[in-house]
Design a protein that fits this description.
By secondary structure, this protein is of the alpha/beta class. The chain is built from eleven helices and eleven strands. It has a single domain, classed as Rossmann fold, CATH 3.40.50.300. The chain starts with 25 loop residues before the first helix and ends with a helix.
Length: 297
Amino acid sequence: MEDKKTCSSCTDTSCATKNRRENESEHDFADRQRLESRLCRIKNKIVVLSGKGGVGKSTVAVNLATALALAGQRVGLLDVDIHGPSIPTMLGIQGQALKGEPGELLPVEVGGLKVMSVGFLLQNPDDAIIWRGPMKMGVIKQFLTDVNWGDLDYLIVDAPPGTGDEPLSVCQLIQPLTGAVIVTTPQKVAAVDVRKSVSFCKRLDVPVLGIVENMSGFVCPKCGELTQILPQGAGRQIASDMNVPFLGAIPIDPDVARAADSGKAFIGQFAQTNTGKIMQQIISQITDPDKNKKLNA
């Protein structure tokens, strides 16, 4: 049976959660301890952000989490993209029923991953989630407080696009965050929003692990030639301008879309393709800060 570490049983006297804060209610103190008792069992917490939707943020999150799991790491994947929870579809686990006991939810397990998504709460996948800010923030807090992740090496969080309530809640509740990966497409109209995401992270003291430029060129499925469709290089330029690492550029590859539609992570099936090797290099920089620094020196 899995050991359930709680704040009351913890021997770390330096932990700020051991003592009640001034003017903190008993209820809030108990909530904070429950949250911390979950998070302190997770070594690395990485949030995947984007300045706007439709840039492939969830694709990066799924493949990052899958690659880590394939490498033998204990990994959780949390999908808090409230209005566009695509992770269950991309991993072929849509429609799964959540299990647990009162006050505790168990993540759905697939391919060595522990997965939680607001998509599991929908009776019909076509249902629209029409919630105001406080309700969305409450669900995010519940996922962090009530989900029994157990001991993890990595928790990858697929956050909603932009810099609004939901990403703010994620970054404020998960402390300390190992860092953020920011995803963009190469044209200026999309990459300009990366500046806002970088500024958002700096305001919240969240380390920026780097920028990924997705859909950077098209790989011909017949000859393998890379053709630039969109104006290129904006992600790299903004990374340079804002003094954050540039992790790499992922081309448009039909196999990436086919893998997601079939409910299987691309990196698990196509790791030896050119696009797969690009993804692996990007992921290795995210998980190896020393390599990240060397490549961006």
